[in-house]
Specification:
The protein is of the alpha/beta class. Helices cover about 45% and strands about 20% of the residues. The structure holds 2'-deoxycytidine-5'-monophosphate (DC).
């Protein structure tokens, strides 16, 4: 019997490894992986590039008028094993991960018209199933009928340390990186994500909680595969 190609929704706090899990899982299952955080980051970058963010304030009318000009696509890069994000045909993978976008993206993702447009695009991408999507509202808003919903978390300190190590590995000579400012950013994003009016981050009633503070990658994958077996998804 051919197993049906399901929809797997992964939500949770920022920097707790959702995208790594989602990527590995998609590979294991032969599914497509969609990083919805990258979509909100690309919109943020677009707003910055067009001067629609001034001192942290967003020019809402201007952004709304240009919303349909934003085309976000992904292309899988086998050498680097990553899904490269393109904004209007230009690769923005590095730029959208920088601190400036990170500092503005929480605010951009509170805007209702931005969310509505992103949700529409995400639902379209997952229409055929066979998808692993990670974000904040995938199990609650985008795919409330997902075949499996995972809610991931880890302590803020552990998440900040992982993010610090990641950035340091990319820029070993950058002495401006500070653990404290990254921890601050993690906590700030948690607060904004879970208190915003529009689709706040919350665990769906039927989601499975995965706290990976003290799990390594393999333990985490084994744990998830056991859940998938239980649900007859593998
Ligand atoms: O997963 P990430 O850190 O790349 O997400 C970037 C920001 O986008 C984060 O502040 C939360 C927001 N986001 C969201 O509101 N809804 C999603 N589905 C995905 C991300």
């Amino acid at each position: 019997m051919q197993l049906k190609k399901g929809v797997i929704a992964i939500d949770g706090h920022s920097s707790c490894g959702k995208s790594t899990v989602a990527k590995d899982l998609a590979k294991e299952l032969g599914y497509v992986y969609i990083d919805t955080g990258a979509m909100y980051r690309a919109v943020t970058l677009f707003a910055m590039q067009n001067g629609f963010i001034q001192d942290g304030e967003i020019l809402l009318d201007e952004l709304q008028n240009k919303l349909n000009d934003i085309k976000i696509t992904f292309r899988y890069q086998p050498e680097e094993k990553l899904n490269e994000t393109f904004l209007n045909g230009v690769s923005v993978e590095d730029e959208i991960r920088g601190l400036e976008v990170s500092n503005n993206v929480s605010t951009v993702s509170t805007i209702a018209f931005v969310r509505h447009r992103m949700v529409e695009l995400q639902q379209e991408m997952g229409r055929e199933g066979g998808i692993v999507m990670d974000g904040r509202d995938i199990g609650t808003v985008v795919f409330p009928d997902a075949d499996l919903k995972l809610f991931m978390t880890a302590s803020p300190e552990i998440r900040a340390q992982r993010r610090f190590d990641e950035l340091k590995a990319k820029n070993p000579t950058d002495n401006s990186l500070s653990f404290d400012s990254i921890l601050e950013n993690v906590k700030h994003r948690d607060f904004v994500d879970s208190t915003r009016e529009e689709s706040p981050l919350k665990m769906a009633d039927d989601a499975v909680l995965l706290d990976n503070s003290h799990m390594n990658k393999q333990e985490q994958m084994d744990w998830i595969m056991a859940v998938l077996h239980e649900r007859n998804l593998v």
